[in-house]
Batch of 2 targets.
Target 1
Amino acid sequence: MADAYLDLVNTPLPAKIAKALGLPRPSVLRRWTPGEVLAPHPVLVAGAGAGADALADVLLGWDVEVRRHVLPGEKLSAAVVVLEAATEPADLAAPMLELGHAVKLLVPGGRVIGVLRSAADASGPAQAAARQGIDGALRSVAHELRGGATANGIILRGDATTTDPTTLGALRFFLSGRSAYVDGQFVEVASTPSGSITDLAAATAASGEGVADQPLAGKTAVVTGAARGIGAKIAEVLARDGARVVAVDVPAAGEQLAAVANSVGGTALQVDITAADAAVRILDHVRRRFGTLDIVVHNAGITRDKLLANMDASRWESVIAVNIASQLRMNEQFIASPVFSETGRIVSLASTSGIAGNRGQSNYAASKAGVIGMVRAQAAEFGGTGRSINAVAPGFIETDMTAKIPPLTRQVARRLSSLQQGGLPVDVADTVAFLSSDAAAGINGQVLRVCGQNLVGA
Ligand code: NAD
């Protein structure tokens, strides 16, 4: 399962040979570690306007050294480019060209983060063109960066500001090692709904203290498919971030499930999520032990790949039943239950296959695109409440699922990403944890890809 080429090419002699031969040279990614320093080097806040000034002030409060212009030769941890003032495409030249200087100064694992307004909220075609243009420009920058650096964007919707608690939560996520394998992606942020974020979370968003290590303290989370793979890692990361975890999986995986639950100090619940009473059993378990259900992570999923021409009913129906029908049924019951918190979060695992399609996966892609449809429709119903629902779409992640891909195809799939490697389960888990946190209160109905900017996945 391990990426031996990645390890090899990060040793001196093979690195030189790979460079001479023009072979891919993936970098070891900067991932979150306890006590992480968000930005050991200065952070450039480029762009004009009150929003940029206010954001620079907040970063200073986070103990980050802030620059408003590039200083020749000085290394940068990140470049944050605030482009919310753009009203026509010509306005992009100055900030983007300044960003061009900055990217040369980024340290390995550096970050480019655009902050912009939505083209959907533009006042006319010129402003929409400028805003949509930023999308294309930043995605291209993400393709160009090397050394494990990434470029992502935060799109402000409606009256959201650059210093709204959710904007700052997203900024912190993108700056941090938690977003290591999120690249070339945009997340839309609405102004944080009142009552949906605790005073503590709002205060820590502004000061930058306290949230880093235990953002889920006091929350109860249910993770389905937690006995192994990505689900086991999600259970571990949510517990690491302070949540009490209920690990759910089928009875046949009972032993592994118990081991995961024990290792994260959580509880195990053997439930087949396709059972009609699955949600009732989960709610009952949570109510008796913890009182309130704050976070639901729909992670359990299966593949039964076949070309459509050879597809049989059982393969099609089982994938739909596990990957989407169960979620629809359970959500209906969770949402109607008083046990589900008024600030509850639902995070559902989609897949890049559900976005781009994949040969041999028409059933799986139907289920995962279905997840995206479900998330968007449910988000509209949640609108204005303290609840949210979002999807995480992993690309190529190093798991048992992708270990089944033939070796050569697997090598190629890894190198196709902008980061020239597959992601790790922890990359997906960290993104799920972010979307589950108070800091993500204004993010609803989004699909965040964890794919290294690659649409090849599982
Ligand atoms: P995995 O097969 O390793 O683990 C899935 C878990 O779900 C297993 O423990 C399994 O027992 C459980 N499960 C299956 N059916 C269940 C049911 N009816 N009730 C309860 N539990 C059930 O898979 P993974 O690679 O860890 O993937 C996790 C999620 O991420 C899935 O939804 C998958 O579609 C998605 N995903 C994975 C990748 C990847 O590269 N691995 C890429 C895109 C999306």
Target 2
Amino acid sequence: VFKKMRDRVSSTTKKFTEKINHLLYYKELDEDFFEELEENLILSDISVNTAEMIVEELQDGIKAKKIKTTESVIEELQNIMIQMVDIPEAPIHFPAISLIVGVNGVGKTTTIAKLAQKYKDEGKKVMLAAADTFRAAAVEQLETWASRIGVDIVTSRPGADPASVVFDAIHSAQAKNADVLICDTAGRLHNKVNLMNELNKLNRICEREKGEYNIHNVLVVDATTGQNALMQAKTFNDAVPLSGIIMTKLDGTAKGGVIIPILNELKIPIEYVGLGEKAEDLVTFNAKDFVEVLYQ
Ligand code: GDP
């Protein structure tokens, strides 16, 4: 898994390594050095806030440890970044209800299919709920996946109230003793307030009806959108408390750096990353390994 991540996220790591290695040309740890460092962090999709925080901590570390060489600075930088991403995992506890939220096009449906396949392979009884009732195509797409993977799905006619789909799905999951109910949700962003209210309502229904089930809400973000992923994580986390994030399309993008501010500023674990379109292309993520990979 680690090797797969290193191979596939090569564009992120190559770009980052090039930028950081350029700093080795500096003879002195002067203002220019720190300015270029901060600029490079921001260009690597590490947010302005997190980049500033990193540089400040680095300057403190240099003083405290009396660091003199650029090589040692780079090492200290890696340590600081590892500490920043070291946040506790929040694993899913079964039986579980999982609302999968995210903007349209990020890879939500594909990710739901990948998760369903993964849980099924682990011997879990999986059920899907097609609660994105605004797009008929989304319901069809999920139905196709459900029959291909061989799991139950609860749907309704297009335009139905998503809350009633989720309500029915929870009771069906409970009646059939499903281990996990994965709910697809709408992701139109052109009316943000409505979308957030709707997701909030779905979350309240899950909380009210869950019985012995545990709620595990997951946001799907697209790595190729860079800083937008951080913004989306903030917005969605205000509407539904997120247990984790899945970042898709980390294959072939130089924008994976946004993982660092997501972890540092929101303290929400990245559970998996998508490294392709196939079911096996969902891999468990380890933030510390990711930072180490950045430096190879
Ligand atoms: P949704 O609108 O959020 O439900 O998005 P879809 O699941 O329909 O995915 C949108 C597109 O992204 C599809 O063409 C997927 O095959 C593709 N996709 C999803 N995840 C990944 C990934 O991890 N890597 C790559 N390269 N493509 C992905």
